[in-house]
Amino acid sequence: MSYLEYAVKSTPTGFRKFLYMNWPLTLLLISVASAGFLMLYSVAGGSWMPWAEPQIERFGLGLTVMFIIALVPIWFWRNMSVLAYLGSIVLLIFVELFGTIGMGAQRWIDLGFMRLQPSEVMKIALVMVLAAYYDWLPSHKTSRPLWVLIPVILILIPTAMVLKQPDLGTSILLLAAGGGLMFLAGVHWAYFAAVIAAVVGLIATVFNSRGTEWQLLKDYQFRRIDTFLDPSTDPLGAGYHITQSKIALGSGGWNGRGFMQGTQSRLNFLPEKHTDFIFTTLAEEFGFVGGITLLTLYALIIIFCMVTALATKDRFSSLVTLGVALNFFLFFAVNMSMVMGLAPVVGVPLPMVSYGGSAMLVLMAAFGIVQSAHIHRPR
Amino acid sequence: MKQRNPKAQGLAYKRLPRRALILGGLQTAFIGGLAARMRFMQVDQADEYRLLAEENRINIRLIPPTRGRIYDRNGQIIGQNTQSYRIVMVREDAGDVDKVIAKLSELIPLTQEEINRAKTEMRRSAPFLPVTLADQVTWEDISKVAVNAPALPGVTPEVGMARQYPRYEDFAHVVGYVGPVSDYDLSLIEDPEPVLRIPRFQIGKVGLESKQEITLRGKAGAKRVEVNATGRIMRELDRQEGEAGADLQLSVDADLQQYAQARLAGESAAAVVIDCETGDIRAISSAPSFDPNLFVRGISVADYRALTENNYRPLANKTVQGTYPPGSTFKMITALAALEAGVVSPGNTVYCPGHLKVGSRRFHCWKRGGHGTVDLNLSLKRSCDVYYYDVAVRTGIDKISEMARKFGLGVKHDIPMSAVAAGLAPNQKWKERVHGEGWLVGDTANASIGQGFMLASPLQLAVMTARIATGRAVTPRLVRSVNGVEEPSGAGEPLDVNPYNLNQVRKAMFSVSNDRAGTAYRSRIINDEFRMAGKTGTSQVRNITKAERAAGVIRNEDLPWERRDHALFVSYAPYDNPKYAVAVVVEHGGGGSKAAAPVARDIMLQALYNGTPPLEAYPVADRDRIKEQQKRLEGDRRPKARPDEKDRA
């Protein structure tokens, strides 16, 4: 009998489960999403259409999904992990074959009422399957090479498929989240050190080969990497977006230019202002104060997740909660670095704020699992 | 089922909180880094980014200034700005551009060239920017477009300002014309003003319009507008009005100018009237002329070819640009130089047998039989050449040249017209410098009668005459006032010439047109108040060979036009109280007394009477002919209905 089933008597039942939900986390999610509605209203020039209203509807759907998932005991979700993973792989194959092409990449399955991005689903499925794997694996085997190889393969399969779409941003996020989970599960330091050393070594070798006889990449490929890493070398092309984003962000100042007064976003200097660059609009209109507030809300979500994770004695619950938090963190960290000009533009939306259905739905579902872990924690 | 009590999970389980804290720490650090970056950008660098954002959003658009108008001395308009209509098209409103253009070309005449240019411009510019389809469109066409507006989406008529010259040919050479700024114009200007880069902005191309460009142009205003990323104007933030160009008032009398132009019609000729008191140029006409309005609109190839291929060179401004050997009109200068040098006195005589041997060459007098004994008065009255050969050789070219400069020959007069020529009053040094040869005494003989190297423009001859008449260094003045502020007068200081000598020359000039034996007696003025003094001139444009001379000099009328002599006449009136000086040059007109003097006299009378003079002012024998001429010129001068005026009415 597993510990969970052993302790099942002490978990709440029926509607009492609502009382045991992580309400601070729920309220934080609602506040962040509301900030998103406000910004979508603003970038549409003071209109609920075309973005804010559908976003609110989807968030409502997302909340419902979260509550439903939260009410289902966490061990059910643990048992569903492998299925979720396999299902996501099937979806990724499906999108590869029949997916809708958008922005030059095959990413979506059109479900009629919304577009589903299997790579988003995979982010959570991967966290779940890895958490379940380490929950199942006896701890003394954690660092044995064979038992390390299995999660590595589990990570690399979807990563490779997403990279082929091509969606570099998401594949890096998958890799980072998977690696993070292995780290949390207690895999030996040496593996990470070796991988990091190997990657650094490879990159160094490729770059050092430039201009020599044994050059590993073609010249144009190097140039492409250059503009990717430093967009300012191409101010009218790739650099234009990032330059305009920095101008918008910086011009916000302390208090911002006022709600719906951001000239950069209102006059269309900002690209993708309702999706990837929505944080820039927020920072332009509400300034440093607004930006820091949102960042604090995000940090609080991470902290509440960590507290939940460390409070539970169940290994799966801990790992899955930390994994969701890590995913969430990677989302906004990459997006914010990008709009502040610290990272290359890789097309990662701002979680819960950017306009977009599937990313938010998947995140809400993931938080549903976190809530479920919280409700059904062993007492 | 396997027991998975947490207690049994060993080392890996213990690691979890530790690793979670490590990862949490890293995440917190990263969030801290993001916050720091945000602080740096939004607090420390906020001002710089704010400035960049403003630069993005705010565009400065220039407001072209209104060009200054040009008036004649009595306030008649010579150059003005009138409304002009053009048809523009906005691509995004038009939908199917080709279809709309095809429909439009059924309504109004559009050349394939215009259509192609407009299409190219449309491809290049933003879809919301209006592109001109047809410029300078008639009112009739505008109304056609307006009536058919529903069938022509995106096509709208627009009103702009265009330069217009209501006196047509009369001031073409004086005022010149404007045209759109070309790349060539820009290349000539160092650091061109931004206003010049406004599409279709017009600047002066030649003449006064070009010379007084800065004064006439004014200062561009500016408005600050907010634009979006594609450049569309969202709203106007503020504007700063520019400064209209200054209005210019010319010294020219438009009516007199019109008369002179009409009087010269049919000839290739130039006439200049100068006010002796102020130096004001009362008329300055070059014939034939052209309509400057053609150039404003963009002249057609056929029209332009007609102008350039005309033998009479309508585009050349003969009054200041054309230089001619002054011929006998130069004799006053030679006489004054000799008198001032003391080599002769007015009473001294020279014997003229019809020729004089100077150096090794024989120089002929125009009168084959000679004039006999000649003194100063007779020499000018009958225009004896030998007298001048003789006194000039004794005076020397340098003194003659110096005297010529004193009277404004060989000197560039500073008036705001295009291509003002300096002419030439040669001296010994000049020949050595330019030709690398020593000055020959024969050159002096040629120069003494205004031939050889000697060159003067009609303007210079008029100035010379005004200076002889007044004894002052009269300088020509074309612009009388700028925005109502009067320009300095050209009355000038008294010349450093003995008044007695000057008076002797004047007396002789009086005889020229008032003494029965004078060369211009037939063109005298019959009014004691307005007696005219003058001097004829006939300048050769070819050398008369010995063989020709032996066969008898061919009469001008028998020569082809371009080989005939130039006819010149300079005069001033009234004799005792000089008011106007007139110089007339008729290219290849034949003799000065026959071809130039009557023209000068008619223009002089017109100026003196400030309108059509009474027939009594003319010699009795001429009155019938003059009456007819007056009637004919009246007819010419009545405002003609121009084809393009009819269009606009």
UniProtKB/TrEMBL annotation, chain A:
Gene Ontology molecular functions: lipid-linked peptidoglycan transporter activity; peptidoglycan glycosyltransferase activity
Record protein name field: Peptidoglycan glycosyltransferase MrdB
Superkingdom per UniProt: Bacteria
Gene Ontology CC: cell division site; plasma membrane
Reaction(s) catalysed (UniProt annotation): [GlcNAc-(1->4)-Mur2Ac(oyl-L-Ala-gamma-D-Glu-L-Lys-D-Ala-D-Ala)](n)-di-trans,octa-cis-undecaprenyl diphosphate + beta-D-GlcNAc-(1->4)-Mur2Ac(oyl-L-Ala-gamma-D-Glu-L-Lys-D-Ala-D-Ala)-di-trans,octa-cis-undecaprenyl diphosphate = [GlcNAc-(1->4)-Mur2Ac(oyl-L-Ala-gamma-D-Glu-L-Lys-D-Ala-D-Ala)](n+1)-di-trans,octa-cis-undecaprenyl diphosphate + di-trans,octa-cis-undecaprenyl diphosphate + H(+)
Pathway: Cell wall biogenesis; peptidoglycan biosynthesis
Documented EC number(s): 2.4.99.28
PROSITE patterns from the UniProt entry: FTSW_RODA_SPOVE
Record's bilayer topology term: Multi-pass membrane protein
Keywords, comma-separated and alphabetical: Cell inner membrane, Cell membrane, Cell shape, Cell wall biogenesis/degradation, Glycosyltransferase, Membrane, Peptidoglycan synthesis, Transferase, Transmembrane, Transmembrane helix
Coiled-coil region list: none
Main location as per UniProt: membrane
The family this protein is said to belong to: Belongs to the SEDS family. MrdB/RodA subfamily.
Entry-linked Pfam families: FTSW_RODA_SPOVE
Top EC category: transferase
